[in-house]
Structures are given as C-alpha cells and as structure tokens.
Amino acid sequence: MPKKLTPHDMALAALVPDDEREEFDRGVEVLIARNRALEILEKERRAQKVSKRVLADRAGLDYASVRRLLTSDTANPTTETMLRLFSALHIHVQAKLPSGRVVGLV
C-alpha cells in the first residue's frame, strides 16, 4: 500500500518536478545545516560571554560582517568564515567520512 501523501508532500510535488527533487532536498539539507551552525556559534558566543567585536578580532574578520552574520536571517557565510569563527570560540569541528572514519577540521 503506497504511503499517504501529506498536504506538504502534495504541494512540494506540484512545485518541484521529480527529476529536480534530489537537488532540492540537498539544498534544503545544506540550509538547515548552515542555520544550525550559526545557531551553535551564537549560543556558544553568548555562553562564553564573548562580544561580537572580540569574536571578530579573534577570527581575523571584520566586526560589521560578523555582526550581520549572527543577526541576519539571510546570512550565507563562506566555509572559511565559519571555520574561523568556530576556531575563535574553540569549537572543534569534525567530519564523518563514508568509511565511518572521523576527521578533525578545526
């Protein structure tokens, strides 16, 4: 018996052709990960009581850019910027490879 489609599934099927669905889903996954990373940065910055200005200085970034990045709903940081900010807050970032091996990035 086929899975019953939710209204969301039906709307998505009408808007995104089947042959584009995988790419669409990957894009959504990346946006969610980006938002999660920015949320982690902001929560940890506050927990450490580090101002945005001090964070920017530690990361070697422009203060206004860091402020916008952490307050904007449309922030789109580069990988380098994200890694600099994680490093400045002493947050260790790891990646899990398809083999299962975990490697450190920062």
Walkthrough of the structure:
- The chain has 106 residues and is mainly α.
- The chain has a single domain (22-104), classed as lambda repressor-like DNA-binding domains (434 Repressor (Amino-terminal Domain)), CATH 1.10.260.
- The chain is built from 5 helices and 2 strands.
- It has helices at 7-15, 18-47, 52-59, 63-71, 79-88, and strands spanning 94-96, 102-104.
- A two-stranded antiparallel ribbon has the order 1-2.
- Strand 1 (94-96) and strand 2 (102-104) form a beta hairpin.
- Helix 3 (52-59) packs across helix 4 (63-71) and helix 3 (52-59) crosses helix 5 (79-88).
- The longest helix is centred in the first third of the chain and has 30 residues, at 18-47.
- The protein is elongated.
- It starts with 6 loop residues before the first helix and ends with a strand.
Distance between the termini: 47 Å
Radius of gyration: 18 Å
**Average pLDDT value?**
94
CATH superfamily: lambda repressor-like DNA-binding domains
| CATH uppermost class | Mainly Alpha
How much helical structure, as a percent, in the residues? 55-70%
Query: Can you name the CATH architecture?
Result: Orthogonal Bundle
Low-confidence segments, given as residue ranges, are none
Strand order of the largest sheet: 1-2
The SSE order reads HHHHHEE
Percent range for β-strand residues: 5-15%
How many structural domains?
A: 1
> Biggest sheet: strands, sense, closure?
2 strands, antiparallel
What is the structural class? mainly alpha
Rough outline:
elongated
Question: How many extended strands?
Answer: 2
Q: Indicate the CATH topology.
A: 434 Repressor (Amino-terminal Domain)
